[in-house]
Amino acid sequence: MNEHLRIALDLATRGVPPLPLRQGKRPFPNCGACKGNACGGRPNMKHAGPCRCPGVCHAWAAATTEPAVIASPTWGAAWRQAVCVGYHPGAAGLTVVDLDNADAIAWAHGALPATRTVPTTRGEHWIYRGPMRSVNAVRPGVDIKSTMVYARYLGPGTGTMADLPDAVRALAAKEHPAVRPAPHAAVPTGAGGGECRHRTPAYLERGIAMAVQRITEASSAVHVTVYRTFLAVLSAHGRCGCLTDTHVARLFTAAQSKGESVRHCTDAWTNARTALGM
C-alpha cells in the first residue's frame, strides 16, 4: 500500500480528515466538473455543500474521514502523485499554532501552555484541542491553522495535547481588520440605513462566481491574477459589508487550488484592501 495512503487511513480512524498534497505542499486542482466552483463548492468544514464530487477537489474541503473515499480509485492517482499528507485541523476539532522559526518557538515557550509538539522543516507545530478561525501572521513567524485551511501532517508529535488556551484565541482578536472580513447578511443595509442599491444577492453571487472562474482558469501569472481578482471583488462589493466569510473562503479556496498558500491569499487580500483605502 502507498505510504501516504496508509498514513491517511490511519488518520481517518482517529477522526482526523486527511487529503493528499502535491509538490510544494499544494492541494490538487479541481476536476473539470468543479472547475470555477461551477458545482457550488463545499462551503463549510463538514462537506455540507452542494458539491458531491468524489475527487480531490476544493483544497481543504476535500479532506474526509471516509475510508471508502480515501482509498477509492478516484483518489488513487492523487496518492500516487502526492509528496505528503495534509489534514484539516478544524474539522478534527484541533488548532495548529505554526511556529516558523527559532524566535517564534522561544516566544511560544514563554507565552503559551505546553501541548503536543511536532517538529517541522523550519520550526514546530503546537497542536491544541479545540477549533477556531484560522489567521496568518498573528505575530512574526506565527500562523494559526484550524478551520478552512489544511496543515501538513508530520507525525504524531510528542507531549500531551492541551485545550486551546485563551492566549491563542487572543492572537486572532489582535489581527489587523484588513485581513478579517466581518460576517454580514448577504444584502446588508448601507451606511445611511438604506438597502445597497446595486448589490442584490444575484449580483453578488455572479461576481463571486466570475472571480472564482478567473482565478481557476489562470494558466500563468497566478499571483498577479489572484491579486487583481481580489482587487476587483473588493472594488465592487467590499465597501457596504456585503462580503461574508463564506464568500472570501470561496475566493481563497480557488486560489489555493492553483497552488497559492493561505499566506499568499491573505497578503493579496490585505494589499488589495490597502490599495483601495479600505
Largest sheet: 6 strands, mixed
Dominant shape? globular
Number of strands: 10
- The helix content, as a percent range, equals 25-40%
Number of helices: 9
Helical/strand content category: alpha+beta
Beta-strand proportion: 5-15%
N-to-C CA distance: 51 Å
Question: Low-confidence parts lasting 5 or more residues at pLDDT below 50?
Answer: 44-49, 175-195
- Give helix and strand order, one letter per element, not per position: HEEHHEEHEEEEEEHHHHH
Radius of gyration: 19 Å
Average of per-residue pLDDT values: 83
List keywords for this structure.
278 residues; alpha+beta; 6-stranded mixed sheet; 4-stranded antiparallel sheet; 9 helices
Describe this structure in words.
This protein is an alpha+beta fold and 278 residues long. Helices cover 36% and strands 14% of the residues. It has nine helices and ten strands. The protein has helices at residues 3-13, 67-70, 73-81, 102-111, 166-173, 201-216, 222-237, 245-257, 262-275, and strands at 18-22, 26-27, 84-87, 94-99, 116-119, 124-129, 135-139, 142-145, 151-152, 162-163. Strands 4, 5, 6, 7, 8 and 10 form a six-stranded mixed sheet that branches. It has a four-stranded antiparallel sheet with strand order 2-1-3-9. A hairpin with a 3-residue loop joins strand 1 and strand 2 (26-27). The longest helix is centred in the C-terminal third of the chain and has 16 residues, at 201-216. The protein is globular, with a radius of gyration of 19 Å.
